[in-house]
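Lecture 7, part 2: worked example. A protein chain together with zinc ion.
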Amino acid sequence: MEVTLLGTGDAIGTPVVGCKCETCNDGRNGGKSRRYRFSILIKSNNGSSILVDTGPDLKWQLIENDIGHIDGVIWTHGHYDHYAGFVEFHRIQRKVDVYGLSDTLDYILDYLYFLKPIRHDVQAYETFNIDNLNITLFEVTHPPLKKVVGVVVVENGKKVVITGDTCANIPKKSMDIIKEPDVLIADAIVPTGFNVQKHMDAKQALELSENIKAKYTVLTHLSHYFKPHDIATKEFPLGYDGMKIIV
Ligand SMILES: [Zn+2]
Ligand SMILES: [Zn+2]
Ligand SMILES: [Zn+2]
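Predicted complex, written out as structure tokens:
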């Protein structure tokens, strides 16, 4: 499969409106610090295109990555930066299959009441298929929300783990199923030294990578508190918008 990071920013993205910090300026001037909001594209070996979350910048993410059709959407949780862009292609495509926990689907589809996608309620830890991708949602910890998941995607024995938004104390049952992925895409909103409650910092994300023995790790959901991308990547394996990972 092929994984594309469509958006590697946090809830407000980089540049931040009104901010003139070094990182935001790099983003504004065309550097890799420009980060759209969260969305990940997974293309199966058969060519199906699945989105994990649909952040508010989706229109330009689809255009810049030349994506014309979506075969399924998985929502990790009901935060604005993870679903608000759904409208951008639903209006063009109409019948879109959407997957998530019942609570998450209830919340998002209430907000998007004027749209009628094809709803698939999924339980955490129960594997389902889209095309030949085997997908399992696993519970994570992202207060104050109670039902939030990450996503495991397996195709032909290759395993990708996307933590979604989570802090470091991921439930044991989830830790057991995310072991030894070929690729780990981990939430790391800030470098070290910040007090974060709802997300991991970069050090915690790298500890998780070590604990589960990930073969390859990339950090996402990044804020402007990281140094400009080209400097920060000397220290941390940061993703960037449009980054492709062949698994
Ligand atoms: Zn988020
Ligand atoms: Zn800034
Ligand atoms: Zn969130």
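Residues 16, 19, 21, 23-24, 224 surround zinc ion (ligand 2) (CB under 6 Å). The chain has one domain: 2-246. Keep this in mind for problem set question 3.
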